[in-house]
Amino acid sequence: MFEVDIIRVLCAFFVGYGLTLSGSLSQLTTNNSLASPSTLGMDGLSVVSLLVAQGLIVTKISSLSSEFLSLIVFSIFFIILATIFLSLRPRDLWQYLNMKQIILLGLAFNLMVGAIFSVIQFMFIALNYEFPTGLWFGHFKHAQLSNLIILVVPCVMIWVYCLKNAAKFNAINLGVFVAQGIGIDVEKFQKINLLLSLLLTGIVVSFFGVFSLLGLVLPHVLRSLTFFKTDMRSEILYGPLLGGLLIAVIDLACYNFVFYGAELPVGMISSVVGAFALILVLLRSSIRI
């Protein structure tokens, strides 16, 4: 019998919405198609929060509810984010970092976190601890109304921000020099957008786990559609709706069609589907060229 959990469906929708919006903010405002939460270190920063939380739990607490664990992870992420924001004030390091440097730093940080992740996985196995796979692959098994509210509020607020700044997005789409020519502080605008992208990514990972590559893949898939191809404003404002719908549909399938009694993680399946879709999009564009 086909079952539907409304809270879970809505959580999945807004996770897809947030990841797509995060990816579009990263790529379009930096004018770099390789920029995404995965390549800018945003996933890595969120995973660091998971590592710290899991380390505290393994050493200090024997059992903990999934909801309380998520709150701990999000609290650690928020502390890290606040520290970064306060340390990168306009008079300090913030003004000396350009977009190329930020992308390279993010990529290097993500690679470092990946290496640390491998070491910790080995240590868990060596010490006979159960490795917390549920934290690393995004899923909605423990989706609750409180999670949904925490996710919806920033999504709506950032959408309103994007709506108010739609003219700036269109100006940057025409070129950095065009935007600067009409008085837009491009670097400040870009960095604000990256912070918003980081916030969305942190919330998603803290409460639902890691959905690797989706922030990179989904915006590219959107741009393969005629409606979004040349209109940055449409991609930012309406594209995330399709991303949310995609993740919700994949989660419904995972929820209703289990594999030998086990529910497949949505993050794992969506990453495979997304990567395959990106390959098709790239091949299609290459054939056209």
Number of helices: 14
What order do the SSEs take from the amino end to the carboxyl end, as H and E? Answer: HHHHHHHHHHHHHH
DSSP strand tally: 0
Distance between termini?
A: 47 Å
Helical amount? over 70%
Q: Quaternary state, please?
A: single chain
The dominant shape is globular
- Mean pLDDT equals 78
Regions with little confidence, pLDDT below 50 for 5+ residues: 90-94
Radius of gyration: 19 Å
Helix/strand/pairing category: mainly alpha
Largest sheet features = none
β-strand percent reads: under 5%
Question: What descriptive keywords fit this protein?
Answer:
0% strand; globular
Describe the protein's architecture and organization.
The protein has 289 residues and is mostly helical. 75% of the residues lie in helices and 0% in strands. The longest helix is centred in the middle third of the chain and has 28 residues, at 99-126. The radius of gyration is 19 Å and the shape is globular. Mean pLDDT is 78; it is low at 90-94.
Quick summary:
The protein is mostly helical and about 290 residues long. The longest helix is centred in the middle third of the chain and has 28 residues.
